[in-house]
């Protein structure tokens, strides 16, 4: 199956309104095109105390007030700030809550770990899994990431699986192999039905926190590879409906060009999500990019 832009999306998605359906991340149009709802996720990493987080969320919610919801907006604070953020979110805020990681068991003698039921109880809807910082700094491997995906899905948390190549791998021309391997190692043993709702984030390691974003062409090529691998290893329908985010030095300046491609469904943002102004700007650019006639 080809995922070339012209063939797969005969009608520009940018010409259609995407309304948020809280129970589905995609829907089919009468023309048979899958509309994937945009998704912007702010990964706070190890930043902000609970008190700082509450102040930040109130200011951010105020800035986002009235923003038409053509994209889903998610903040992923550290575990210690999840409760404070949830409390600071009022009913009118468009922000949803996510976590940066979790363990695969529900409970037990696992010092320092946090489980899916605990995150769900705190109001989390998403969980980032397999971030390259977890892989490189904390030794995470695909086997554990797969167990985490399974546990998240079991408890109704939507996993955001992060994959991406190192600079060395890109320079040696093995990006596609690396992405294919990471997907194949993380997603075996799941039915297509179970994986409905998973999100994949393409995050080239060399672009994370470096100020050197991938080009749109590099991002699109990687997203096409991911969709192709998902089509052959899971199902064409899941490949079609799964949202693929780009992450790595996303800023208010480059978000519009990244989202201009039908292949990029949103972004996973690190540094630029820590300031109200930059996250709010990214959110509003993304929302405009997904609305009619903008
Ligand atoms: P960055 O981080 O936006 O600071 O590059 C992205 C990420 O790690 O998800």
Would you give an account of this structure?
This protein is of the alpha/beta class. The protein has a single domain, classed as Alpha-Beta Barrel (TIM Barrel), CATH 3.20.20. Helices cover 39% and strands 16% of the residues. It is built from 12 helices and 10 strands. The strands form 2 sheets. Strands 3-4-5-6-7-8-9-10 form an 8-stranded parallel β-barrel, surrounded by 5 helices. Strands 1-2 form a two-stranded antiparallel ribbon. Helix 3 links the parallel strand 4 (71-76) and strand 5 (95-99). The chain is globular.
Describe the structure in brief.
It contains twelve helices and ten strands. It has 294 residues and is α/β, with parallel strands linked by helices.
How would the blueprint of this fold be written?
Layout (H helix, E strand, L loop, with lengths): L4 H4 L17 E3 L5 E3 L1 E6 L6 H15 L6 E6 L2 H10 L6 E5 L16 H6 L2 E6 L2 H7 L3 H13 L3 E6 L3 H5 L3 H12 L12 E4 L13 H18 L2 H6 L1 E5 L7 H5 L6 E4 L6 H14 L5
Parallel strand pairs: 3-4, 3-10, 4-5, 5-6, 6-7, 7-8, 8-9, 9-10
Antiparallel strand pairs: 1-2
The structure holds 2-phosphoglycolic acid.
The site of 2-phosphoglycolic acid has 13 residues, from strand 10.
């Amino acid at each position: 199956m080809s995922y070339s832009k012209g063939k797969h999306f005969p009608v520009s998605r940018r010409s259609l309104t995407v309304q948020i359906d809280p129970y589905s991340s995609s829907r089919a149009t009468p023309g048979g095109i899958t509309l994937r709802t945009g998704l912007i996720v702010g990964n706070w990493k190890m930043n902000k105390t609970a008190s700082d987080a509450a102040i930040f969320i109130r200011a951010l919610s105020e800035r986002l007030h009235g923003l038409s919801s053509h994209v889903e907006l998610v903040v992923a604070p550290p575990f210690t700030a999840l409760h404070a953020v949830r409390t600071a979110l009022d009913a009118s805020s468009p922000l949803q809550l996510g976590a940066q990681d979790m363990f695969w068991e529900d409970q037990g003698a696992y010092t320092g770990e946090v489980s899916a039921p605990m995150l769900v109880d705190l109001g989390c809807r998403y969980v980032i899994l397999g971030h390259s910082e977890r892989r490189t700094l904390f030794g995470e491997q695909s086997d554990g990431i797969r167990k985490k995906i399974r546990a998240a899905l079991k408890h109704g948390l939507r996993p955001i699986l992060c994959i991406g190549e190192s600079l060395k791998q890109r320079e040696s021309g093995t990006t596609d192999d690396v992405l294919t391997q990471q997907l194949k190692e993380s997603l075996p043993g799941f039915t297509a039905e179970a994986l409905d709702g998973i999100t994949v984030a393409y995050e080239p390691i060399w672009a994370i926190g470096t100020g050197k974003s991938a080009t749109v062409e590099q991002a699109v090529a990687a997203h096409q590879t991911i969709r192709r691998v998902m089509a052959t290893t899971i199902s064409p329908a899941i490949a079609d409906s799964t949202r693929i985010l780009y992450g790595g030095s996303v800023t208010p300046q480059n978000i519009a060009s990244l989202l201009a491609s039908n292949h990029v469904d949103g972004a996973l943002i690190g540094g630029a999500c820590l300031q109200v102004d930059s996250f709010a700007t990214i959110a509003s650019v993304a929302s405009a990019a997904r609305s009619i006639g903008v």
